[in-house]
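REVIEWER CHECKLIST
Item 1: Sequence provided? yes
Item 2: Single chain? yes
Item 3: Sequence as submitted:
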Amino acid sequence: MKYLEEYRDSTLVRQLAQRIRRVTTRPWTLMEICGGQTHAILRFGLDELLPSSITLVHGPGCPVCVTPLEMIEQALQIAARTDVIFTSFGDMLRVPGKHSDLLRIKSEGGDIRVVYSPLDAVKIAGQNPDRHIVFFAVGFETTAPATALAVLEANRRGLSNFSLLVSHVRVPPAIELLLSAPDCRIHAFLAAGHVCAVMGCEEYLPLVTRHRVPIVVTGFEPVDILHGILMAVGQLESGRAELENQYIRCVETAGNPAARALIHDVFEIVPRQWRGLGNIPRSGLGIREAYAGFDAEKRFGLSRQIVAEPAECLSGKVLLGLKKPNQCPAFGTRCTPDHPLGAPMVSGEGACAAYHRYRLQEPTAASNLP
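Item 4: Structure as written out by the authors:
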């Protein structure tokens, strides 16, 4: 509780907002990459505290949201099998595929179980030797070490009835895609602190150097986010483009060497299809050949087919920061958390879900601060 009081202190929040207003002389557009930061910004009304010349746009920082439809269709195909126990984090169950979702498959008799760790799925595999257990491995670099550990544990125990459907993605290539777009209007980025706690900050330095854009590694509480914004705007106003770390209490330059070693042992860098963004080179993590027996795509002989997004859903433009969720004609009417058209309305980190929860009514700046 003391931690929350310190980093949500309303006096310090307002002081930071005042400092941002004082240093800002020009219009700037900043993108926060992490969906957790998006939810914090909207929950606490932080964007309402900023000068009107600063625009915050929300990036593709929700791993559930960027999981492509073809991967969802593969998950549905596996989960419907009678010889499979399909395990997943809970936020994947209601992500819509082309005609169904995992929750509907479960209601129709599929054995789908929510787990809180990939190691829970390994435990289920040990308890059910006559069934095949598949874990839906979704997430950025933050969750990849735990997935890698599950593979190593299953391998150690000789559990041949365990495999992964992998949709792990990497953040830096997505930023590269955004910055390389001819219509890019982003002046600075707030990088996700939990990703950098694992991977460190060094991967972002080439982006800063090549594109001359500030990147500030930022935490998730109001003070963290506003401090990160202040650091980014300070760079922009002085004509600098540097990699800075606001989240020094959790992030070291080299990240977590043990976690990085786990990732490197089990995974290799591969191209990955992103929902709304298309195929991004070197943006995914795929299972190395040494552990190919734990690859569900290979085990079940699955093929990847491009599945068209619903024409009415603007989630692709939301993930690219080109549209705010409430600029979608279907927002809050034909698209709600109960009846979503796209993943960003389902996930706990989705921008559409954040707007639906916090912006159906006019926000009050910092009204939820203690």
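Item 5: Key structural point noted by reviewer: Confidence is low (pLDDT under 50) at residues 363-367.
Item 6: Recommendation: ____
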